[in-house]
Amino acid sequence: MRKSILALCLVVLAIPLGASGVQAGPIERACLTSNRQAASRAVCACIQSVADQTLRGSDQSRAAKFFANPDRAQEVRMSKRNADNQFWARYKAFGSTAEASCAG
To answer: Quick one: which of 3, 9, 24, 47 has the fewest CB in 10 Å?
Structure first.
């Protein structure tokens, strides 16, 4: 009985350590390194969480580049390429969801 209680305590104590070791995704990293005033850990983590739910991995990498170069977003938005238009539709949906979910 005593060993099982000790084991349970160790598992409970180890959970936060494992969770904190998770690496940030590309959107969260870009958000945290941006010079935006509202870029806090909590907001950037929330935005990454929405990205994980709404964007593919390649879309996340592409969107993360917009933080450093907003002109790139404008180029994609104005593009006539079908692939860019499809990406932009996914990106807009992500942005709307992130705004609704993460606005403080």
So the answer is: 3
pLDDT the model gives residue 98: 95
Residue 39 belongs to some domain of the structure: yes
- CA–CA gap between residue 66 and residue 77 (Å, rounded): 12
Angle between helices 57-68 and 70-78 (to 10 degrees): 120
Q: Does residue 94 contact residue 55 with C-beta atoms inside 8 Å?
A: yes
Question: What pLDDT digit, counting tens, does each position of 84-95 carry?
Answer: 999 999 999 999
Is residue 86 one of the residues assigned to a domain?
Answer: yes
Does residue 67 lie within any of the structural domains?
yes
Report yes or no on 2 lying in a domain.
Answer: no
- pTM exceeding 0.85: no
For 41, list phi and psi in degrees, rounded to 5. -55, -45
Domain count within the chain = 1
Half-sphere exposure at residue 103, Cβ-oriented, CA atoms within 13 angstroms: 5
